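Example (one chain per record):
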Amino acid sequence: MELLSSVGGIIVALLAFGVLIMVHEIGHLVAAKRSGVRVDEFWIGMGPKLLSRQVGETLYCLRLLPIGGACVMEGEDGDDGTVSERAFSKASRPRRFLILVAGVLMNFLLGFVILLFILPGAQDGKMVVPTLDGFYEGFQYEGEDGLMVGDTLLEIDGYRIHMRSDVEPAMAQGQDDGVYDILVRRDGREVLIEDLPLQANVEVDGQMRYGLHFATEEITLPLRFSTAFWNSVSLARMIWDSLGMLVSGEVGVDQLSGPVGVTAVMSQTAQASIQSFLYLVAFMSINLGVMNLLPIPGLDGGRLLFLIVEAIRRKPLEPRLEGYVNAAGLVLLLGLMVYVTGNDVLRLFTA
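Predicted structure:
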């Protein structure tokens, strides 16, 4: 039974991974066809071809490994003089921009819809909100010069607070000195509380906390939508911060995970809790969107960068140059994938 559960978790994880890629590529496909651009091939997965079918001018393929996909458009690497008027390179800049960002937008939309459905943090039809409705015994900074019941937290040291779950990341920024500038909404007006010393020195259920007690609200449709939206923004911000740590050297490349590591985590989560699994899928979908926006050759962001350069120059770049740069980017990305996959496999065998 345990083996069956593990195998089932892996299958579910692979299917979810494939869906994320399919949704991304469908975004490109629909935008291209709506823009009148010819799509020669549309495939999900990489490696050997499992199934294929020609529908109109487009060949649709399903490949063995669910770790990639493509929407192959005529002339997407530039106009070499042999393409038709329906080539990607012949489309207007706004249409090309829309086609390039459509995959990312679909991933963001999928992540938002999942979060809208599961609504992390909801319990018994209520949601904890960043409004104070009391303080635990031992809290020392209650009053007009400090925090008061009814205050809604808006910012902590410039970190915007949209949800209750934003409070801890905001507090973590000021861990060195434990002194915060907190912007709250109080009695309908914004009040800035400067240099408020807060320490996690109040014991609550056996753990040291700041001593703040937050209110709950009935989950209305507007609250559900706003919470799902800000959850999506929070995940994107978390991914962006992680990329910053990678660039600054705080996190090493050896700590990255590839398809094998991600599938392993998704499999374990699928066996533990369906809600946790769906939350992870939402995170992965938004992560895929953010990563594809990076201005790296071979990714959508790299192509967008070429489009911006073209708009500034008012003429396209040399097609061969764009093709070479994108090809080099893909080679580097594949090399990185091989490296992180090797690390994933080593982790699995040494865990």
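Caption: The mean pLDDT is 84.
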